[in-house]
Amino acid sequence: MQHVCRRAGTFHFRRRVPGRLQHRLGGLAEVYRSLETSSPRVAAFRSRLLYLESERLFAALDGDPALSVEDARHLMRDIIGPAAWVQADLIIRRPVGAAVSPLLSVTPAPCPATYPAQTTAASAVPALASPTVAAPVPAPVSGAPLFSTLTEAHIANMLETGAWSSQQTALQARGTFRLWIEYHGDQQVDRYTRRHASEFMKALGKLPQLHGRSPHLKGTMRENIEVAAQLSPRSIKRPKLLSMKTIKRHMSALHGYWDWLRQHGHYEFDTNPFSGFDYPIANGKPASEQRAMWSDRDLNRLFTSRLWVGPGADRRSAAFWLPIIGLLTGMRLEEIAQLHTSDIKKRDGIDFFLVHADGDLRVKNANSVREVPVSGMLVALGFLDLVEERRRARCKRLWPDLRPKGQDRRLGAYYSERFTVYRREIGVYRPGVDFHSFRGTFETLILNAGANPVFVKAIMGHSTSDLIGEGSRYLKHITLKNKLEAMNMLKLGVDLGHLLPNTEPGSHT
To answer: Is 380 among the domain residues?
Structure first.
């Protein structure tokens, strides 16, 4: 089939935009869209119709030089969209011998294997299939902006006003908006309905967690859903799908964008199509039960494995320190992984981690910005000696062996994959128990030891409003001294004495 390629099992239509028209479409060099089918027969019909529809588009652009880029791209979406192949689908279902539309009987010009760098007007566009095909009239403009037009303005405003406290939230919102456009197209915002929102939510529930990151899931949202659907539910290779928590985050980002458009006068909506959705609890369990704690047995097996003892142990590596810091401080993986040497500070005789957003440093939310004392156990294990060593070497990052990974360039993602593989290798892998479980283990153990819950929430970077209500806004600062005393109450069920500098397992008392 000409002008058709196959990607991740799904057929796609591809056709080069003539060079003379590329600037009319904002620099777009190619018409490319999914045919949304894995059937060669259906793809053949749909691609032929899209070829003719692209001819109509090019003729319309030639016939109206005054058409703006925005209107031209809007026209393209109207012509080369899902509705374009409705007629083709009807033809496919016709009884044998029934009349076929002449539009679908036209054989398109061959698609060259490679496109030349420059294309002349005569060679770029084959003759129209029929002289009676008229250029389409642009759809009436309602005055509503295209979905993509104000997304960056929305993100910038949310950051400037402090409604979002970190670039991480901005990156997540961009990811949500990209998925929305992939799934429903970039239309004027008043064209989207509650049905669009519902369909998108259902599609998110079928989307693999590693979409865009796994080498097998580099396609569009629809393509990645199809890849996941083709695997048996019992297959060990079947990818995990998005959690309800992640689905809710995507829907909340869209809800917020709609509210922002209305509040700032960009368009007056009757209702927000993303309001009122229910988000069931995963597996019927509350959040506190969805991720298990580390058991004493698994902690012991972990910290007596080759990364911590024996000739392979590297006391300068992120692999050695990240789980220890996570267990002894309750800090999040990315908070630890992104640390700079300058983020380890000292005040009133107490060393502490400064968790904050600055440049390439990100935090989850406003409560995440905090000071976390370096506990007595971390000092005994030689952590501050490592910090001084890094500073003498003029290292900016505390963990120079970590590399950014993924669309949001997270350092924690690079480590997390390796930590999962390692846990499987040494036999301590359990579903629901991961690096983040160090955080829950720390919180549970320190509270069971009798620490003040308000101090614990301050250490963890959680809001205290659920404990002290309105009074939380007046609780400006929990002292480092109070935090450190609470952290030193931590009682582990596993002995880490063998990790003290210059000791081997069994040599401590």
So the answer is: yes
